[in-house]
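REQUEST
  id: r-88c1
  op: predict_structure
  target: UDP-N-acetyl-D-mannosamine dehydrogenase
  payload:
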Amino acid sequence: KSLTVMGLGYIGLPTAAAFASRKLKVCGVDVNEHAVNTINQGEIHIVEPELDIVVHSTVTEGYLKASLTPESADAFIIAVPTPFKGNKQPDLAYIEAAASAIAPVLKKGDLVILESTSPVGATEHMAKGLQEFRPDLRIPVSNRSSGEFDIYISHCPERVLPGHVMRELVENDRVIGGMTPKCAEKAKELYELLVEGECLLTDVRTAEMAKLTENAFRDVNIAFANELSMIADRLEIDVWELISLANRHPRVNVLQPGCGVGGHCIAVDPWFIVSRTPELAKLTRAAREVNDSKPDWVLEKVGLEIARISQLNPIKDVKDITVACFGLAFKPDIDDLRESPALNIAVSLADRHPSKLLVVEPNISKLPRSLMQKAELVDIDSALENADIILLLVDHAEFKEQASRIKQFVRVVDTRGVL
Ligand code: SAJ
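RESPONSE
  id: r-88c1
  status: 200
  body:
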């Protein structure tokens, strides 16, 4: 049996390598020539623990190879990005391109699975595209189709946590939506080669919505925590104490506020729900807006601290006030700066305030381009020595360990409750 995986990013490459490690002949396809060459040398172009070992061994043993164009296979998994456009409408261009690339090599009996997180209706849209390219094949194009078809179409959303992908690919339960019950069964047969969790079968629309629901659920709950943090601040209440007390109720579990919500999923996926049903998804939209507004609120807080220092020391020039940002990553204990509210806050600080900017980020060795020449990367000691204001943005383990020292600092804006 053979598998072609379209897209060799954070989901596609681990998925391709994991199936190849189960002795399936896997061809991974990407438009990025550098990625294709790197993988064919048994190396990886992204950061994910344990992925390098699996890619190296499966390429060496001949089970995994990468290519710029797809080849014929028994099953196809599409794992390409689904970003949104400026107007928060989903952009399905990558799915459409992947479908048009595999259409010429499809043959009777093949299975096509969309794994990309997608708005409801995207799998049907993809199937319609395939049908247009291949009028000679009978392809199910509507959710809950009935009858016999030549191609099996399913949606099986990925739900792995970056940093734990190789383990979660195997251990997590999978939701598998089929265009027909048989399509779902066929996809289940494939995933069972790899997945030790349960494979739960449903239709494609429900599977699409299940994935969006998981991330929107988390977004709404984080938004509640973020809103509480702003209310508590206004009322001069310690939000961390407040949440820990409320969470002592047996049916309450408030999440943790922060400087905003980052990453490539939780800040994007809820918009896919809003885009389909804008008049109904009021809470989902409000949560997105609360979380997106949190970085501005943090910037205002820092602005107030800068103003306070200027008032207390009228001779001190604002240019001589030093702010140290602790953390740039989008969440604790990773080096991933993409879509990070902490990074955006640091960049805005550098652009808006003439004060000096220091950055402490133990997980990186050089500043990203957006901060180069605007800030200086330093260690904790040097920041504590030189900063007038400490802005705690990410609760990295290193900062928690040093909490008692940081606490002695007079001006700290702690967005994560580290102190
Ligand atoms: N965050 C808070 N407070 C919290 C929890 C998280 O502010 O209490 C922030 C984080 O700092 C980060 C953002 O939310 O900026 C997202 O982090 P995360 O750890 O909640 O999630 P991701 O984006 O790394 O991964 C999520 C996961 N989804 C769920 O937990 C429901 C993962 O399982 C999905 O596979 C992934 O999205 C995805 O690819 O969709």
